[in-house]
Specification:
Its EC number is 2.1.1.198. The protein is of the alpha/beta class. Helices cover about 40% and strands about 20% of the residues. It contains 9 helices and 10 strands. The protein has helices spanning about 20-25, 35-45, 60-70, 95-100, 115-120, 140-150, 165-175, 200-210, 230-245; strands spanning about 5, 30-35, 50-55, 75-80, 105-110, 130-135, 155-160, 180-185, 195-200, 220. Strands 3-2-4-1-5 form a 5-stranded parallel beta sheet, with helices on both faces. The model has no long low-confidence stretch (mean pLDDT about 95). It binds S-adenosylmethionine. S-adenosylmethionine binds near residues 85 and 88.
Length: about 250
């Protein structure tokens, strides 16, 4: 049956393309791509000849209607982004939302995503985490955003652009303190893959001193805030004891 396939593509290393992704991209009628020129190379590499069409979340609703209409008429469409999993800090939300509302089947074809790859090798607690995507580009907004996350106990995952990496790390240090651990996962799956864990003060000094560390794509992860056992906890457990006493 016709469907909208959400297809993950590699985040650097073409060897990470999953076989089902190739099969699906070969067999659908149309591929909606974030940047068709960028995706042409992937298509050539895997011998995929399916026509490409540009899709962004800011494409007009006529584009969304056109694509959904095609699926309703029996054609299958695959959505890809420039790298990794669509919708993860990438276009796709609007068309998936519209597809679901229109009763069109949506099928994920999972593969690489930088956030999950980084988390899996970061050495930070991974049982609970939050994905924050990109921090605001301007410092004032970034600091405010980080302040709101100061007490978050879960591991935090951020995407960052190379030219803002150092500024973001410095703001993280200012808000979270020198000792909070950060992991920089840079150029994952590529030749210069670097994964480093260090306290923020140390990481800022290291990245500032080595401009090579400010190149390429990067995921930043912060250890969550340690929820210290406070007087409040002591009071809470005293109340709990009283309540349990009542129950027995
Ligand atoms: N949809 C993609 C995914 O599933 O990972 C993310 C797209 S987002 C526009 C691009 C950001 O992802 C980059 O700025 C960087 O933070 C991160 N990223 C993508 N590829 C990466 C890689 N090979 N190594 C480290 N970070 C990467």
């Amino acid at each position: 049956t016709a469907a909208l396939y959400i297809v993950a593509t590699p985040i650097g290393n073409l060897g990470d393309m999953v076989p089902r992704a190739v099969e699906v991209l070969q067999s659908v009628d149309l591929i909606a791509a974030e940047d068709t020129r960028h995706s042409v190379r992937l298509m050539q590499h895997f011998g995929i000849e399916t026509p490409l069409r540009a899709y962004h979340d800011h494409s007009g609703s006529d584009t969304v209607d056109y694509l959904i209409g095609k699926i309703q008429a029996g054609q299958s469409i695959a959505l890809i982004s420039d790298a990794g999993t669509p919708l993860i800090s990438d276009p796709g939300y609007r068309i998936v939302d519209a597809a679901i509302s229109a009763g069109v089947k949506v099928v994920p074809v999972p593969g690489a995503s930088a956030a999950i790859a980084a988390l899996s090798a970061a050495g930070l607690p991974s049982d609970r985490f939050i994905f924050e995507g990109f921090l605001p580009a301007k410092q004032q907004g970034r600091i405010k955003h980080l302040q709101a996350l100061q007490e978050e106990p879960r591991t935090l995952i951020f995407y960052e652009a190379p030219h803002r990496l150092l500024a973001s790390l410095q703001d993280m240090q200012a808000v979270m303190g020198d000792e909070r651990e950060v992991v920089m996962a840079r150029e994952l799956t590529k030749t210069y893959e670097t994964i480093k864990r260090a306290p923020l003060a140390e990481m800022v000094a290291w990245v500032a001193a080595d401009s090579n560390q400010q190149r390429g794509e990067c995921v930043l992860l912060l250890r969550g805030a340690v929820v210290a056992s406070t007087e409040l906890d002591a009071e809470a457990s005293r109340i709990m004891d009283v309540l349990l006493e009542e129950l027995s």
